[in-house]
Write a structure and sequence with these properties.
seven-stranded mixed sheet; 7 strands
């Protein structure tokens, strides 16, 4: 009898304690999530977005419009790049990710590309640039060595290659791969670029690709910059990191400019990632001035007396 009681005490009691602790943790997490929603600027919209996302309600375009997809900023850039290409009569585009790390972004791009091809009937090729060895050594203060460290974000190459279905990995130093990329791959026009090189130096080298032949670009290219907002830790500013690279590139080029997406910032509900979208304008592109709006838009006088 004593042996049976001992077994019950030591076998069931610890499990009960673990269950109680886990229930308490789940309760705290629910309270935090609820507080987050209640104090959000638009709690009902956030609740709807989370519900639609979780249950995949509606079409892809509907969910993308709500931001109810993984990495909505990726989907936004790719969708609207493909939409612009379609209006210009371009059947295929390329999408680039600078800084692949573990590969989650490329996997996500493949999902968006698959869905967008169904929606718009525009082909999409994907290219991911990385060394495969993690971040290089920061060159100076402009690369934010107080936040980034050599070796961060190493890639498990065999694992990622098994996971990818359609993406092209471009390995090497961006100072070299940005130069020979077009000759090596002869890509369809680039319509969207995801920038996640973290450093000022690497981002500036990546931006030099924008100097390539106009045939390799749409006249307006959607860009997402991952590291231009941040927090009190990073303290990104116009004098370091990706922001400095953008400013220097703009200062060096008269006919190519990377500009804010003011139309997103003017929306009634502004998502945090709206601040990270930039549009690269190729003003001298032969298709920049091609008309893409409604053919005959009129606004006649109303209530004529």
């Amino acid at each position: 009898m004593f042996a049976r009681l001992k077994k019950r005490l030591f076998a069931t009691h610890p499990l009960t304690i673990r269950q109680r602790i886990w229930r308490r943790i789940k309760y705290i997490l629910r309270i935090k999530q609820l507080s987050k929603l209640l104090f959000a600027p638009h709690p009902l919209l956030d609740i709807r977005m989370r519900y639609v996302h979780k249950h995949e309600i509606g079409s892809y375009e509907y969910r993308l419009g709500l931001g109810a997809v993984d990495r909505p900023h990726y989907g936004y850039c790719v969708y609207h790049a493909a939409e612009l290409a379609k209006k210009l009569g371009i059947p295929r585009i390329s999408v680039v990710e600078f800084g692949v790390a573990g590969g989650n972004g490329l996997v996500n791009l493949e999902y968006h590309a698959q869905e967008i091809e169904k929606c718009l009937s525009v082909g999409i090729d994907i290219y991911g640039f990385d060394t495969g060895e993690g971040l290089p050594k920061p060159q100076d203060f402009r690369d934010l060595p107080y936040h980034w460290k050599q070796g961060f974000f190493r890639m498990d190459v065999p694992l990622l290659e098994r996971q990818l279905k359609r993406s092209n990995l471009v390995f090497g130093d961006i100072r070299e791969t940005s130069v020979n990329f077009f000759e090596r791959f002869d890509p369809a026009p680039i319509g969207a670029i995801m920038h996640d090189f973290d450093y000022y130096s690497s981002t500036l080298s990546a931006l030099q690709m924008l100097e390539g032949d106009e045939n390799y670009f749409l006249p307006r290219v959607f860009n997402y910059f991952d590291d231009i907002a941040g927090s009190e830790i990073e303290m990104y500013c116009d004098y370091t990191g990706e922001r400095l690279a953008i400013n220097e590139f703009n200062g060096q080029h008269e006919d190519i400019k990377i500009a804010d997406a003011y139309y997103l910032l003017a929306r009634k509900v502004v998502q945090p990632w709206y601040h990270q979208i930039r549009i690269c304008h190729f003003f001298k592109h032969s298709q920049y001035n091609n008309f893409i709006c409604k053919e005959n838009e009129q606004r006649p006088l109303q209530h004529v007396t």
